[in-house]
Amino acid sequence: MQMPGSRSNYFKDFKFAFSQLLELLRLGLLAVVFPVLIFGLLALTKLVAMPNIFGVQIHRYDVILFACLAIQYLMWRTNLETLDELRVIGVFHLLGLLLEIFKTQMGSWAYPEMALLKISNVPLYSGFMYASVASFMIQCWRLMRLQLEHWHSRVVPWVLALAIYINFFSHHVLPDARWVLMGLVVLVFWRTKVHLELRQSRYQIPLVAVFGLLGGLIWVAENIATYFNAWQYPSQRGAWHMVDTSKLSSWCLLIIVSFIVVAALKDPNARWKAPSRDH
Questions:
Q1: Taking Cα atoms as reference points, which of 173, 181, 60 lies closest to residue 123?
Q2: Which is nearest to 89 in space by CA: 130, 122, 39?
Q3: What pLDDT does 99 receive?
Q4: Fewer CB atoms inside 10 A, N or C side of the chain?
C-alpha cells in the first residue's frame, strides 16, 4: 500500500535531483571556459580566412597562440585563476610542448598548417591544449570545493606521474608499459574518492572512475580538434575520420598526470572530514 504523501516525496526527490544535475552542469560549463574558448578559436579561425597584412601572411596557429595568452591573462586579472595556478598552467604548456615536439618527430601526428611561432614544426599554441586540461581541473577544484579521501603521500602519486610521462616517450623504443601503469593506478587509487559540493550537499565518486570519465571526454574533444585541423594523424591525411578508440588509454594517462600535479598545488593532505550530509 502506498503511504500518504509518498508521491509528493518522490516528486520532491526528483525535483531536488534535477536541480542538482543542473547545478553540476552549470559548474561544469564554468570550469571548461578555457577549453571551450580554445575550441571556439579553432572553429572560428578555420572558417574565417586569415588576412595578409603589409605583405605578411597571418597564420591561424599564431592567432590561436596570442588569443590563448590573452585569455589566460584575463582569467588571472579577473581572479578566475591565481598566480600559482597560472604557473601550473604554464608548466603544463611546457610539458605538452615537449611531448608534441617528440611525437611529431616520431611521426605520431603532424600539424598540417604553417606557423611563424613554432619549434621543430610544432606551433607554440599546441601546449595550451594540455594546459586547458589543467585549467579545467583547477576550476573544478574551486567551483565544486573538491576534497580527496584516502589520498596517498606525495611520493607515490609523483612517482606514478613521472613514470607515465616517461612512458609517453620511451614506448617508441622500449615495450609499452601503459597497461602496467594503468594497473598500478587502479591499485594505488582504488580506495581514493573525490568529494564535491553542490549547493551545500556533498557527493562522492571513485577517483578511478573520474580518470576514465575525463579520458573519454577528452577523446571526444580530440575528435572535434582534429576535425578543425588542430593537428592531424597520419591516417587522417586523405580525409578526416574519428580518432581510434585506442587513444582512450593515452588520454586517461594524461588525465592521471594532470590530476596528480593539480592535486599537489591544491594540497590534498588537507584531509577530508566527513560532513553531516554526504551522498
A1: 60
A2: 130
A3: 93
A4: N
Cell 585506442, located at residue:
246
C-beta separation of 33 from 140 below 8 A: no
Cα R_g (the chain), whole angstroms:
21
Strands (E), 138-260: 147-149, 193-198, 201-206
Quickly list DSSP for 76-90. HHTTSS-HHHHHHHH
Cell numbers at 27, concatenated:
559548474
Largest CA distance in the chain: 82
**Helices and strands, counts by H and E, the chain:** 9, 7
The grid cell for 240 is 578526416
Quickly state the pLDDT bin for 3 (edges 50, 70, 90). Answer: low
Whether residue 225 is predicted with pLDDT greater than 90 in this model: the reply is no
Instruction: Decide: helix, strand or coil at residue 57.
Output: strand
Query: What three-state secondary structure class fits 33?
Result: helix
What cell numbers appear for 8 in the block? 509528493
d(CA 145, CA 270): 12
Structure confidence by residue, pLDDT tens digits, 15-24: 888 888 899 8
C-alpha cell at 115: 606557423
> Which ranges in 56-126 belong to alpha helices (H)?
60-77, 83-105
Q: What is the dihedral of CA 232, 234, 237, 239, to 10 degrees?
A: -90
Identify the H or E element spanning 181.
helix 178-189
